[in-house]
Write a structure and sequence with these properties.
By secondary structure, the protein is an alpha+beta fold. It has one domain: Jelly Rolls (Sandwich), CATH 2.60.120. 14% of the residues lie in helices and 33% in strands. The strands form two sheets. Strands 1-2-8-3-6 form a five-stranded antiparallel beta sheet. It has a three-stranded antiparallel beta sheet with strand order 5-4-7, covered by helices on one side.
Length: 160
């Protein structure tokens, strides 16, 4: 039996606060090659998730907001924003993103906690699965992109 209690959430959020990436994962699946990947992710507003897609037909992902709030941005390969989905523990809580869909998310509230489920096994994304118009993690431009996306509306360009 696996249990993820309030104390576990607090510990995970503390890890995210002190992580250079401003997020932390708690895997519930036993190994990275497990057929179903299940994890809790703590996020802070300064985290950056580079827009990406999962380019295998079985690589959908489901997000459930347990605490806090995120905004999921769906875009086309050129960086035009197609959908903006505001999610929170008190509003839209669950979203399933189909395979091949370009997406990212913006953390809106400190100590946000998301539960993610996706088909395994885990495989790191290849270069062609990251949006080439978006900076890689750690690049100087990351903060500018993240802040631009916070206010971006459907139809707008994700490149500031």
């Amino acid at each position: 039996m696996k249990i993820f209690a309030a104390a576990d959430a607090d510990t995970l959020c503390q890890s995210a606060r002190t992580s250079p990436r401003q997020r932390a994962h708690h895997n519930l699946h036993p190994t990275l090659d497990a057929p179903v990947q299940r994890l809790c992710i703590a996020l802070q507003p300064e985290t950056y998730v580079r827009p990406h897609r999962h380019s295998e037909s079985n690589k959908w992902e489901q997000l459930v907001v347990l605490e806090g709030a995120v905004c999921v941005l769906i875009c086309n390969p050129e960086g035009q924003l197609l959908e903006r989905i505001e999610m929170s523990a008190s509003g839209t809580r669950m979203l399933e993103i189909p395979a091949f869909t370009w997406h990212t998310l913006i953390c809106q509230v400190s100590d946000t906690l998301v539960f993610e489920v996706k088909e395994g096994p885990y495989a790191p994304a290849s270069d062609e699965d990251f949006a080439q118009w978006a900076p890689p993690e750690g690049a100087v431009e990351v903060a500018r992109f993240r802040e631009w996306w916070r206010g971006l509306q459907v139809g707008g360009c994700m490149v500031p």
